Amino acid sequence: MPLDGSVHSVDENKLNALLGLMVNELGAAQNAALVIIGDELGLYGALADKGPLTSQQLADLTGTHERYVREWLSAQAASGFVTYQPDGARFSLSPEQAAVLADKDSATNMTGGFLALVATYADRAKLVEAFRTGNGVCWTEHCNCLFCGTDRFFRPGYKGNLLAAWLPALDGVVEKLERGARVADIGCGYGSSTLIMARAFPNSEFIGYDFHDGSIAEAKQNGAGLPNLRFEVARAQDYPGRDFDLVTLFDALHDMGDPVGAARHIANSLAEGGKVMLVEPMAGDRLEDNLHPVGRIFYAASTNFCVPASLGQEVGAALGAQAGQQRLESVLREGGLNKVRRAAETPFNMVLEASR
What we know:
By secondary structure, the protein is of the alpha/beta class. The chain has 15 helices and nine strands.
């Protein structure tokens, strides 16, 4: 009974609809771990390359136990991740399933998002305490699964869009990069975005900065051998270097404790005519604009990681992963980047061009 003593009857249709949603949620949560296992053991890759396969054939190809593989395949087929062919009890991946689950070079590969879920549950106790105290959970306090999972989740989108659409959407930037420019990639993580640009524009100099020393160590390994690329541990508010023709931030500004301070330092580090490319999660300016499946993912990730990361740093602005363009523009302008426009977008990202 409600606290005010009134009686509310339950609408059976609405109740059943909600229960149906919860059944889907429980199935998704259980299968998330199985997606990670399938990726780690190469089960998706083997199905994509050699399927259709029986459970025994898949187990033989991957060096795994058939009884586990059979149950895994059944769960995957029930989820719609794998295609079951009753004739011969064989399993396969359609081209679409392979693009999402098996092909690591596909712009639509989603397995990285599942890897990050390991950190969600491993660090749950820290988040519970943060809810109680209002304190943050700094990015560096999470297990490594978050760092590799985040890189795996965003990398396909960068591969598919950065060179083909995002950089060309900026005014005159590609031409500068082809001639030779200085570029800083702020909050670069494992360096996937920096590496894509450095390989494409050998005449330009690229520096990736991140405050997490573990990520920079990984980035240095990933970029080893490229003469126009280096990585350094540094914060967005005070990284070294000036006269950059381009400064990029990929899904990083909203995690920062002091995004205005970062924008101010970025503005001061630009060369005359320099540009900023800010890539952020796609979001409308109002909550009601974001109540859809993509917004659902980003609000959940923001609760688990982005807001706690910001609250764990100085200022603690806590923009969140669904800040929206209006709020982002306000931050950029307060930092001295007065010219802002949306240059490009995808279902997952908005790309803003900014300059002084």
